[in-house]
Amino acid sequence: LVAGSTVGFKNFQFDASVRSYFAHDYVHYKTFSEFEGLYGKEQVAVIMLTPADGDMDSPIFLQSLAALTDKAWTLPFVGRVDSIANYQHTFAEDDELIVEDLIPHGQKLSPEQAQAALQIAINEPSLINKLISKDGKHVNIALNFNLPENAQEKNVVIAEALYAFVDEYKAAYQAEHATTIDSAITGSLMSIYHNIQIGQHDFGVMVPLMFVLMFIMLGVIMKTVSGTLIAFLIAVLATIAAFAFSSMAGITFALMTFNAVIIIITITIAHCIHIIKHFQLLLAEHNKFDALLGSLEINALPVTLTSVTTLLGFLSLNFSQLPPVITLGNVAAAGVIFCWIFSFTVLPAMVLLMPFKHRAKTADIAHPMMEKSANYVIHHKRNILIVSCVFSGLMLFLSLQNILNDRFSEMIEKPHQFRTDNEKIDQYFGALYDINLSIDSGVESGITAPDYLASVEKVAKWLRAQPEVKSVTAITDIIKRLNVNLHNNDEAYYKLPESQALAAQYLLLYEMSLPFGLDLTNQISFDKQESRVQITFASMDTIEIFAFVDKLNAFQAQNLPPAHRATPTSVAVMWAHLSYDSLSSSIKSSLLALLLISAIMVVALRSFKYGLISLVPNVFPAAIGFGIWYLIKGEINMGLTAVMIITIGIVVDDTVHFLSKYKYARETLARSTEDAVRYAFNTVGAAIIITTIVLVTGFSLLILSQSVSNTGLGILTALILFSAVLMDFLLLPVLLLYL
Fold first, then answer.
1. Less CB within 10 Å around the terminal CB: N or C of the chain?
2. Which residues make beta-bridge pairs with 434?
3. What is the pLDDT of residues 191-232, one digit of tens each?
4. For 601-668, what is the HEC assignment?
């Protein structure tokens, strides 16, 4: 089955872009897609250059910038290159409009010409804090690439070519001029590249490390080579089968999806431990076949029940608004199914085929510890109940104090080249964050109408007055500059023309003069009915994005006619909405999963009372985990919104095993409540501790990831799983004793 499934890997697809977080039918993504349909898709890289000597107006530096800008057109898949060097500067000579590069390539500059060019750039509103910093000490080269969807290999080629391109330039500049150039590179294209690298790192380092660590842990826990090999093999088989069949089903993997490897391995090993440990316990008094049969009989219900509850938890992730979370849930669910199948087929077969040593019953050193734990809980049940309730209530309160904040510019852990470069560029220009308006004139070729241009100018002027805004690009800047040029460069005419015919003529004349690759298609729709206003920012908190969008919408409502009001859109806006939507869907999914799991518990345990009791120790671990997370960080990103659902199905496992053993002691062995609690501790306590150690260790390995979402997921999940074992050993038996 597993060998045959591997043909599915030929359909393996991986998407490392920010876009992988958005479903194609997500309302805000559809708005953004419509925007890109008008102005083209932006797959951007930005190079910031800073002369180490601060001599920006040096003719040598500006000439090298012009040469570098020209050479950037040779990079693979490049569609557009913008810098102050090839900025299309306009001026009039007699009756002629001249449109040319501000710093022509191959032309030597005098100090006066260099200074004049720099002053023009610093005084141009559309360039300031976009291609040149306000203080005139840093410049950007912005590149846009033409790539098809999911072109991961091409993305890697471009990014590595870009790093080599900049390094070569810096080395040549230093060799020729005996001074250095500082550089930084960021952009959506570079973000994808580094996410691919992180995915390869995580898969190439964490997964092998996990297998080694789990193998060692299993050897220590099982104290048998055969048991260790069986559990290890089944974990490998379940993982391969889950990923192979998921690939065959057409699932597109994201960075977060690879966490399914750790989830499947830990859950599989936990199941195997329960069956094999109980088999070893019975092997002291029975032959191999009877010991195996006894272990399967007592573990069939809890292992099946925990598999179903875990499966339901992961399938509940399908209600999430995040495609990577959905794929994580589905791949993990597939792993749970294969784990269950192999636990009752491959595992028993291999147990019978492989050698196991008979051990004396007294060899179980965990028994005295479990007996003491049970007696402690029985004798201090009142105090435990009070402390548990107070502590859980406090943690629940703290968990609700976490705020939702998710900066997609900070998805990679520090220290990292991308984070360092992005923060450098962010400081002067704003790097990955922008908001766009596509303002509609209502008619074809209507963007030159005076009332339309007046609306665009109002918006641009208001935006430039806002403290959050780094730069604003609007078509009115071009038209005002052309009005000056065509009135003999008289600055008194730096205003919008009163005639639509005149504005249309200006725009036509300008467009006809632009060189290939530097047209206005990224600012004006093809039918000239809409134009784009682009606003760039430094990285912003989620709540700040919402506040700015609300402020912008309020300004439009008060100052623009309804026809000219536009919906703000960008990756940043989509990301902010998705953060809240994912939290909302996570809460709904968690409640649904809890209800379904509780219903299954009631049916499986044939007791409404046990079903209700099982709810308590499964709800509070999440509250405790998020409460501790508030003390650690206090902020939740969208990746963490799925933790609640992921852990619900897992934390139920220990409760099921404890309750099933307790119920067996009460009903089959006819023991008292206190003795049934002791029986549950003695028969399953050690296994619960062991499986918790395995699960916590497995998820803790995510700390080694360079992805913020993965490290947060690992830490928070480990906290919740550790809290769950405390609840199962303290609160659950106390509730049984009282109820």
1. C
2. 536
3. 989 988 988 888 788 878 887 887 788 788 777 888 889 988
4. HHHHHCCHHHHHHHHHHHHHHHHHHHHHHHHHCCEECHHHHHHHHHHHHHHHHHHHHHHHHHHHHHHC
